[in-house]
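User: Can you recover a sequence for this backbone? Please restate the input before giving your answer.

Assistant: Of course. Working from this structure:
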């Protein structure tokens, strides 16, 4: 399970980086505003919830040895996805900037979470 969690983390880092940069470019370039951007965004953000489920399974098996900051970054990532979704209507004019910077922020959280060992030996 730890290997799946680690591999998924790097996949999500890459996906959120791609989505973030694509959305930022789409703010200025209309021809990048295609349906595939939103599909990839949904995959990247739903992937964070799948990652959290895998993390909870690991946590249940080794609850006494999980680093609390790793959990903090995981919960913060989930909250960020919720905020992005919640503010999409209010910031419709800046939706590409919202999801661009938001996805890059998620990428940063995931990078930071990978730097903290999830399971302490």
């Amino acid at each position: 399970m730890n290997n799946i969690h680690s591999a998924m983390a790097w996949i999500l880092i890459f996906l959120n980086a791609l989505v973030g940069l694509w959305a930022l470019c789409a703010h200025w370039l209309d021809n990048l505003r295609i349906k595939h951007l939103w599909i990839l965004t949904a995959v990247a953000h739903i992937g964070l919830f799948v990652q959290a489920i895998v993390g909870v399974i690991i946590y249940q098996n080794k609850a006494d040895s999980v680093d609390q900051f790793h959990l903090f970054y995981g919960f913060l990532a989930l909250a960020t996805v919720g905020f992005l979704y919640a503010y999409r209507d209010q910031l419709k004019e800046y939706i590409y900037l919202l999801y661009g910077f938001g996805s890059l922020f998620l990428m940063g959280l995931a990078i930071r979470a990978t730097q903290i060992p999830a399971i302490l030996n």
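That completes the design. The first helix runs from residue 2 to 28.
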